[in-house]
Amino acid sequence: MLTKTGNDRNQTSHRVILHIDLDAFFASVEEVNHPELKGRPIIVGADPKQGKGRGVVSTCNYEARKFGLHSAMPISHAWKLCPQAAYLSVNMPLYEEVSKRIINILKPFADRLEQVSIDEAFLDISHKVADLKEAKTLAEEIKSIILDRESLTCSIGIGPNKLVAKIASDHRKPNGLTIVSKYDVKKFLAPLNVEELGGIGSKTKERLNSIGIKTIDDLSSYDIKELKDIFGAWGEEFHRMAYGIDESEIIEEWIPKSFSREYTFDQDTSNFDKIKFIVNKLCQEVSLETKENGFSFRTITVKIRYENFETHTHSKTLSFPTSSTEIMKNTSMMLLSPFLRSDRKIRLLGIRASNLSEKVHQKTLEGTNHSYSL
Q1: Which residue in 111, 155, 158, 217 could disulfide with 190, CB within 3.0 to 4.6 Å?
Q2: Helix axis angle, 233-242 relative to 224-231, nearest 10°?
Q3: What gap in Å lies between CA 287 and CA 295, rounded to an integer?
Q4: DSSP 197-210
Q5: What are phi and psi of 261, to 5 degrees?
Q6: pLDDT of 365 higher than 90
Q7: Count H helices, E strands: the chain?
Q8: What share of the chain is helix, strand, coil (3-state, %, to 5)?
């Protein structure tokens, strides 16, 4: 591994940020754990129940994606498209353990490291390399070690900031490596679809498209005053992003913003006892995860989705931080009560704890949002 010390560190005249994204992580880990599935489409998520399952696809490997499958697709639709796939339940403890090992592989390569999810991390390697040629060598070494030790591939993007590095890592997947120098940022971004910029979701994309902005080049060329008139302060931010400007720092200590659980019923229900049982179960799990991570919470949010997919959320912020399961249960039922009607069946329930306060914080690699279909 390359390490620059002393005066050598001054040779890097600008930031060099590496973004690593593990390819189809859950499905890839399952393929390593079940070598007999190699070469088959693998779908991790809810039980399809012969095409009648109620949950969604958590992730799928690239063999499954050839059939048009993708994350968050209803599991029943996935079954119709690819009934021959191997359907596996989410095994979060396994994925967290593999993630932990990979983060330990990455740490020596970075001046600073920010884990942004169970399968993604940013590394500031500005003082580890003298130029982009050495950055490429370092990235190739990372890829080689992860493949050797974990039998997993990853895609890596290297750029002058987090925004560009993240987009670069998505540019050639799977098992890609894309390097963008600070001089080539505008050229690299220009032809890409505008939604590839972080923070631009489907509704914002539609609004941008409606005024003739489809590519990042279109966005960078658009009058900034008009953007501000339409999108407010975000208009100026979008314009900066289109030029690849991002001054956000690598945040080494990963602190979750919330902990949550969701449950999708096998059959839509208005049965109060069933609903209360699930609420209690979700509250127990969220409260336990909050405690295990060394946090208390002040805000409790409930989510309810009816059989027609109409969805409501409602929150309450307490006057004090707590990690009490009973308080979470009672508050959640109070929040849900106005939405519980005998003539309306429920498809999904969710509980979230947020507005977190750190107690004795122990950093973990646990995901903060798990979905179940039981």
Answers
A1: 217
A2: 130
A3: 9
A4: STT--HHHHHHHHH
A5: -140, 150
A6: no
A7: 13, 14
A8: 40, 25, 35
Q: Is the pLDDT confidence value at 275 over 60?
A: yes
Is the pLDDT reported for residue 307 higher than 90?
no
Is the pLDDT assigned to residue 318 strictly greater than 50?
A: yes
Half-sphere exposure of 303 (CA within 13 A, CB side): 16
SS3 of 120, please? strand
**Which residues share a beta bridge with 122?**
19, 114
Asked whether 278 and 349 are in contact (CB, 8 A), the reply is: yes
Q: How far apart are CA 238 and CA 197, in angstroms?
A: 8
The single-letter code of the amino acid at 318 is: L
b/e per residue, 253-263, with b = 16+ CB within 10 A?
A: eeebebbbbbb
Res. 254: pLDDT tops 80 = no
* Residue 2 pLDDT level (bands cut at 50, 70, 90): very low
Q: Select from 16, 54, 48 the least CA-distant residue to 268.
A: 54
pLDDT at 107 over 50: yes
Which of 120, 236, 252, 307 does the annotation list as catalytic? 120
> Residue 218 corresponds to which amino acid?
D
Task: Show the domains of the chain with their CATH numbers.
Answer: 6-23+93-183 (3.30.70.270), 25-92 (3.40.1170.60), 187-242 (1.10.150.20), 258-373 (3.30.1490.100)
Question: Positive or negative CA dihedral for 255, 122, 176, 183?
Answer: positive
> Is residue 312 within 8 Å of 339, Cβ to Cβ?
yes
Q: What is the average pLDDT score of the chain?
A: 89
pLDDT at 191: 97
Identify the H or E element spanning 354: strand 346-354
Residue 98 near residue 26, CB atoms below 8 Å: no
Tell me whether residue 262 is one of the annotated catalytic residues: no
